[in-house]
């Protein structure tokens, strides 16, 4: 078969898309080696396939195009030839190429979907990891607090409720006199109403001298219902009052919820 006959036969298109029968592949490859123009013709066919795909598909990277081109060259399916005045071989070659490209695009879309799912899973895993780290950090913090208040350096002091204001209220202070640190357990104090906050006072009894230790708010919260206050004067007693948000300069005695002295330590 001459060079022009081979071009007109449609076998080059079938060869490029991998649909040429195996027994004719060697014939085409021998012809390509014999006629240098056939190599250029194959390059034109390959370029046309890529341009065709670009017209019906979104832009893809050079790496993806290389993958498609290699797939076109490597796929081999046995197809019977038919003789007709219409160049059915060329048409079937283009049809096979289009089907192959559609399959490749479907595969790439599926791959992109899997990649997105993998990214979502990775994000969720990182979120769980961060939550676990937060829980672990809080656990270590809680264990450190418990070790502190159970040590001999801290004295537990009960603060019973004021019978005239909140007879059911209770609180407990773990007091470190040397370091001027106190942990206040408020689990048995009523939840303060909106616009109000508990304020803790250290007391000197004779004469009665209250000094604010701080507010029981988010800034002093160290665990559920447990607050930490520091840097206050040595105390003979402690009281907790209900004050307006932001606290007061002096305690509102009519809102004194709990009161206890150091010598009431168990």
TrEMBL record:
Parts forming coiled coils: 111-138
Q: Which UniProt keywords apply?
A: Coiled coil
All copies of the Anti-sigma K factor RskA C-terminal domain together span 94-252
Domain of life the protein comes from: Bacteria
The record's annotation in Pfam families points to:
RskA_C
Q: Which GO terms describe its biological process?
A: regulation of translation
The record's Gene Ontology cellular component field reads: plasma membrane
Protein name, as recorded: Anti-sigma-K factor rskA
From which lineage does this chain's organism come? Bacteria, Pseudomonadati, Bacteroidota, Flavobacteriia, Flavobacteriales
């Amino acid at each position: 078969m001459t060079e022009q006959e081979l071009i007109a036969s449609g076998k080059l298109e079938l060869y490029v898309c991998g649909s040429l029968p195996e027994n004719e592949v060697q014939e085409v490859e021998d012809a390509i080696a014999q006629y240098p123009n056939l190599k250029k013709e194959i390059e034109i066919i390959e370029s046309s396939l890529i341009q065709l795909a670009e017209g019906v598909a979104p832009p893809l990277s050079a790496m993806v195009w290389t993958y498609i081109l290699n797939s076109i060259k490597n796929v081999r399916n046995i197809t019977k030839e038919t003789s007709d005045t219409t160049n059915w071989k060329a048409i079937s070659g283009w049809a096979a190429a289009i089907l192959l490209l559609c399959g490749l695009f479907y595969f790439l879309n599926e791959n992109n979907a899997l990649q997105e799912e993998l990214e979502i899973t990775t994000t969720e895993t990182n979120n769980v990891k961060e939550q676990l780290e937060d829980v672990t950090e809080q656990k270590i913090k809680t264990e450190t607090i418990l070790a502190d208040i159970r040590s001999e350096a801290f004295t537990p002091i009960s603060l019973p409720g004021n019978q005239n204001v909140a007879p059911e209220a209770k609180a407990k202070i773990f007091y470190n006199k040397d370091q001027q640190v106190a942990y206040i357990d408020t689990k048995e104090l009523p939840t303060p109403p909106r616009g109000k906050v508990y304020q803790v006072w250290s007391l000197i009894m004779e004469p009665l001298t209250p000094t604010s230790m701080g507010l029981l708010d988010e800034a002093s919260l160290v665990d559920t219902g447990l607050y930490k206050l520091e840097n206050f004067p040595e105390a003979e007693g402690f009281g907790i009052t209900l004050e307006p948000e932001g606290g007061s300069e002096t305690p509102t005695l009519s809102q004194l919820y709990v009161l206890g002295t150091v010598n009431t330590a168990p």
